[in-house]
Amino acid sequence: MMDKRDLLQKGIRDYALITASTLLMALGTYLFKFPNNFTFGGVTGLSVVVSAVLPVGPSTVNLVVNLLLLVVGFCFLGRSFGIKTVYSSLLLSVSLSVMEEIWPIQEPLTTQPMLDLLFAVALPAFSSAVLFNIGASSGGTDIVAMIVKKHTSADIGGALLLSDLLITLAAFFVFDFQTALFSLLGLTLKSLVIDSVIESINLSKYFNIVCTDPEPICHFIVTRLHRSATVFEARGAFTHNRKYVVLTAMKRYQAMQLQQFIKSTEPGAFILISNTSEIIGKGFHE
Q1: Potential cystine with 179: which of 170, 175, 223, 274 (Cβ 3.0-4.6 Å)?
Q2: How deeply is 182 buried, as exposed, middle or buried, from its count of CB atoms within 10 A (0-12, 13-18, 19+)?
Q3: Element (H, E) at 270
């Protein structure tokens, strides 16, 4: 269990990450997505479609829709409604409205739609991955998904994908064919980027170390790397000599230190190293 000081530090770190990620998402959306009429991505995509039909800016539409979804979320979810999601959703909506007010943009920043698309995908997708990784989101259609998940047994992932796809396909009826195709491509790239970023953030190294003396290795893991390990007694299939197997997992920068230590301490050790982004337990994901 974490004490009050650890909880405070974790809270400050989480909200600093949420703030930075949400502002980055707002920049990517306002500078690259809105001017090009890209319609992928939940409420911001819906805002682009609605603003093309009605005489109102996409930032205003985004603010109104998100506020309505927050009210609906509080009504249906109550206290289980994540405060981090509320904070991020409000910050995103307000940031977009402020930027629209102080820096109106009437046309794309560049003359290369593909370049704009890459930034329109990369910045919000990276931000979403960071938010998801700390248990938050920027609201929007995620709020609807939380409500559906609580009250039904529907496939949430499929429902979210379907809603995003329908909003994206609306570009074929509202904008030109090129914009619609770019929006479809953006929807595909967004999912790939989010998955890749989350996996990269969580990437760790899993060690299987076969050695004759596990004590120095375990001492280094515990005292220098501040990790733990599990030791098994084993026997070599060819030599029939007694061996020990040390199992441990750690971050990438720590893995290099452990490799160097084993090389200098027991050069004959046999080491299996695997990449993993799914480790649940103390020191990783709770």
Answers
A1: 175
A2: buried
A3: strand 270-276
- Reduced to 3 states (helix: H, G, I; strand: E, B; else coil), residue 179 is helix
pLDDT in tens, 208-219: 999 999 999 999
Decide the pairing of beta strands 204-211 and 270-276.
antiparallel
Domains and CATH numbers, the chain: 4-201 (no CATH), 203-276 (3.30.70.120)
Mind listing the pLDDT tens digit for each residue in 34-83? Answer: 999 999 878 888 899 999 888 888 999 989 988 888 888 777 767 656 78
Q: Which pair of tokens denotes residue 69?
A: 């979804």
User: Which residues in 244-282 are b (16+ Cβ under 10 Å) and which e?
Assistant: bbbebbbeeebbeebeebbeeebeebeeeeeeeeeeeee
**Torsion angle (degrees, nearest 10) of CA 11, 14, 15, 17:** 160
Half-sphere exposure of 69 (CA within 13 A, CB side): 24
Smallest CA-to-CA distance from 41 within 204, 183, 228 is with 183
